[in-house]
Design the sequence.
């Protein structure tokens, strides 16, 4: 693992434990086994490091969504796989999710606009991919020809709800809940 990656891993751990204000560059350096000034060869400051961690989380999430557009697979299966893959990613990257939770719930004042802007860009991009997926479903006569914005925003709300619930439910409970809520979502958009 490169020094840059070690710095990010240490920062991720400390941020999850202490939050942005509570962690210091010295603590990160100590975890990595380097001197604190060495971090500045990679990052301008703590904010720069923090925003890169946040961007990494959003990119990981986006990658899952963008991989789902596949005209060979039934749309119902693609949408379900998208939701399940997002849950899998969230469970596999628990520390990174703590960053998102902290940022959304308690953004540092001086980074609030940048954090919200990055999240809005991420959501806009994610929404486009979901709309493309839904359009394939409409074209293949699997999905009702309804407003794409409404259908994609409903799916995003479902994803957000699952994300927040996974903070208090077990993995098994979450996958059971996914089955139930997806069945209701699909029944609202499926062409009969």
Sequence:
């Amino acid at each position: 693992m490169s020094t840059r990656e070690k710095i990010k891993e240490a920062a991720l751990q400390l941020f999850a434990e202490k939050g942005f204000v509570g962690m210091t560059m010295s603590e990160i350096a100590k975890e990595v086994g380097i001197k604190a000034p060495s971090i500045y060869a990679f990052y301008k400051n703590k904010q720069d490091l923090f925003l890169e961690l946040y961007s990494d989380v959003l990119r990981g999430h986006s990658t899952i969504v963008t991989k789902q557009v596949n005209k060979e697979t039934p749309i119902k299966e693609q949408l379900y796989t998208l939701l399940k893959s997002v849950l899998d990613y969230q469970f596999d990257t628990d520390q990174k999710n703590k960053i998102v939770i902290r940022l959304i719930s308690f953004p540092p004042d001086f980074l609030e606009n940048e954090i919200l802007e990055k999240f809005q860009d991420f959501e806009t991009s994610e929404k486009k991919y979901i709309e493309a997926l839904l359009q394939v479903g409409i074209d293949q006569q699997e999905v009702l020809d309804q407003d794409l914005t409404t259908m994609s925003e409903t799916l995003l709300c479902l994803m957000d709800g699952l994300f927040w619930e996974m903070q208090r439910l077990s993995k098994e409970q979450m996958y059971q809940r996914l089955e139930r809520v997806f069945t209701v979502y699909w029944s609202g958009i499926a062409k009969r």
Notes: The mean pLDDT is 87. The chain has nine helices and no strands. The radius of gyration is 19 Å.
